[in-house]
Recover the amino acids of this structure.
């Protein structure tokens, strides 16, 4: 009896791991389909694919959906909804979401204008950016920093630092 129960438990565990291994690439493939639809200008299809993924917490889909709302691509233009999606992506450490959220704070689109919060998110974006985007992100971050006095710059750096610490603590739990 113990052998049968042990075998069944191993089978269930193996099936779960297999399902997990299969579903992650499948989810990544669906995001890729949404990105491809966006790139070819088929925004309606992109929204149809990316919307449910964004709702389920996919940071890449959230950042792209935020962009679509910011510029009215396949959805009504809405800065507040764009900020929502950028924030969802940014809080998960997505550099594109952080970058665009920083720009929204810099411009005051969908949120009250705040150069300090803009700096925070742009600084985080630059630190998480892929190498091909890093210099652009740094340039924009530094342009925002030039608007800040020393106390504001220190506050923006502190906000980015504490966000990073909290994020790392959350990942280790």
């Amino acid at each position: 009896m113990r052998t049968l129960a042990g075998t069944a438990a191993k089978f269930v565990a193996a099936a779960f791991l297999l399902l997990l291994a299969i579903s992650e690439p499948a989810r990544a493939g669906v995001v890729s389909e949404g990105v491809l639809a966006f790139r070819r200008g088929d925004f309606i299809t992109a929204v149809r694919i990316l919307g449910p993924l964004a709702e389920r917490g996919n940071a890449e889909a959230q950042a792209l959906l935020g962009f679509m709302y910011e510029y009215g691509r396949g959805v009504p233009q809405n800065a507040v909804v764009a900020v929502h999606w950028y924030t969802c992506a940014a809080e998960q450490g997505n550099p594109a979401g952080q970058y665009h959220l920083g720009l929204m704070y810099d411009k005051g689109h969908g949120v009250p204008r705040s150069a300090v919060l803009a700096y925070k998110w742009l600084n985080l974006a630059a630190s998480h950016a892929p190498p091909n985007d890093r210099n652009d992100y740094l340039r924009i971050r530094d342009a925002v920093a030039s608007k800040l006095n020393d106390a504001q710059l220190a506050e923006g750096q502190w906000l980015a630092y504490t966000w990073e610490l909290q994020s790392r603590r959350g990942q280790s739990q």
Remarks:
- The first helix runs from residue 2 to 39.
- The chain has two domains: 9-78, 93-164.
- Confidence is low (pLDDT under 50) at residues 1-27.
- The CA atoms of residues 14 and 20 lie 10 Å apart.
